[in-house]
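Structure in, sequence out. Go:
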């Protein structure tokens, strides 16, 4: 589907002010000059595709997204490359996942080409906002919300709005790659079989906040989720996928429908095999994690996601016991994968898989 976009040019922030904001951006607090919106109704389908100035959305207080949570989103990044060009990493994978989420949440499918065109249009319009410093990027947040004004909950909304906004993002680790400590939650779970765990919807994230606060009270940086049925199997860490490293062999929890099919996760499975590291998707129990750490068989653990990239785990806590993984520092496999992935994203490594989509 080819969609015609109308453009409304925003008043640009002065160069000096933009450069000040780009010098040390914090994640998700500063936004570019424009955004993209596309509307959907039962009568017209997708229509009114618009590049417009960044600003508030006007919604009725009875809008269904406020009351029943029919909402999905994605997250991906655009990178400035050595030749000055800009590239988006794997946007087609995000487009496909958005539509898997929309199917689960009874929302309309957005044509992949419209998704890609919206990203390209926004990034091109706000290309001055793409940082040039290594480790910095432009974070892109596409999302879709139910916009029917009604408190009746008898069927899915009859109207939706797709939006893309962009925010410059600094390096996740400002002083080098730092390992984190994590808390295994046995009281709360993230998702259950048949639920929305594999969809990227806001409710999955809101439900994590109380457990993340509990982790902080335990002196940990993040929470690790166990499966809802047996409270035995590792699902995710916070809002990120996990990898366990045994020497040069990688294992990540298999997709069961209760955890997100991360695009960074998928990329690392491919890159690990490219680099000669055996990689598999298996179920891993909390007891196995503890035992393999004690024996020294498990040598590294890391999480991965778009915002945090690759985050090494130095120690973990379950109940009153704490385990240190290896020497508690980032391991060689973790750092090698991080270097390779960032090299492709920033144009310093060969992209063998067609992941990079350049913006003219």
């Amino acid at each position: 589907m080819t969609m015609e976009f109308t453009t409304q040019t925003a008043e640009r922030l002065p160069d000096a002010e933009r450069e000040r904001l780009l010098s040390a951006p914090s994640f998700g607090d500063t936004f570019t000059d424009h955004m993209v919106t596309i509307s959907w109704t039962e009568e017209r389908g997708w229509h009114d595709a618009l590049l417009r100035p960044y600003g508030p959305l006007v919604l009725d207080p009875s809008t269904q997204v406020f009351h029943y949570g029919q909402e999905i989103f994605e997250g991906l990044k655009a990178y400035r490359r050595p030749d000055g060009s800009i590239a988006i990493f794997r946007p087609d994978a995000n487009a496909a996942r958005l539509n898997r989420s929309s199917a689960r949440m009874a929302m309309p499918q957005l044509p992949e080409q419209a998704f890609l065109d919206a990203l390209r249009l926004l990034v091109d319009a706000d290309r001055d906002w793409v940082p040039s410093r290594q480790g910095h990027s432009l974070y892109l947040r596409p999302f879709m919300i139910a916009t029917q004004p009604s408190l009746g909950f008898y069927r899915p909304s009859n109207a939706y709005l797709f939006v893309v906004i962009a925010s410059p993002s600094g390096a996740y680790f400002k002083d080098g790659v730092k390992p984190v400590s994590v808390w295994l939650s046995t009281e709360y779970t993230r998702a259950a079989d048949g639920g929305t765990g594999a969809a990227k919807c806001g409710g999955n994230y809101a439900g994590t906040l109380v457990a993340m606060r509990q982790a902080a009270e335990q002196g940990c940086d993040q929470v690790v989720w166990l499966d809802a049925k047996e409270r035995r199997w590792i699902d995710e860490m916070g809002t990120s996928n996990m990898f366990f490293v045994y020497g040069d062999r990688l294992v990540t929890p298999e997709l069961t429908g209760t955890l997100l099919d991360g695009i960074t996760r998928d990329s690392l499975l491919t890159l690990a095999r490219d680099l000669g590291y055996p990689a598999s998707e298996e179920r891993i129990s909390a007891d196995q994690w503890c035992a393999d750490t004690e024996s020294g068989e498990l040598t590294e653990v890391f999480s991965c996601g778009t915002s945090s990239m690759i985050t090494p785990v130095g120690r973990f806590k379950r109940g009153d016991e704490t385990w240190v993984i290896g020497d508690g520092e980032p391991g060689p496999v973790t750092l090698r994968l991080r270097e390779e992935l960032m090299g492709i994203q920033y144009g310093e490594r060969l992209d063998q898989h067609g992941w990079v989509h350049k913006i003219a």
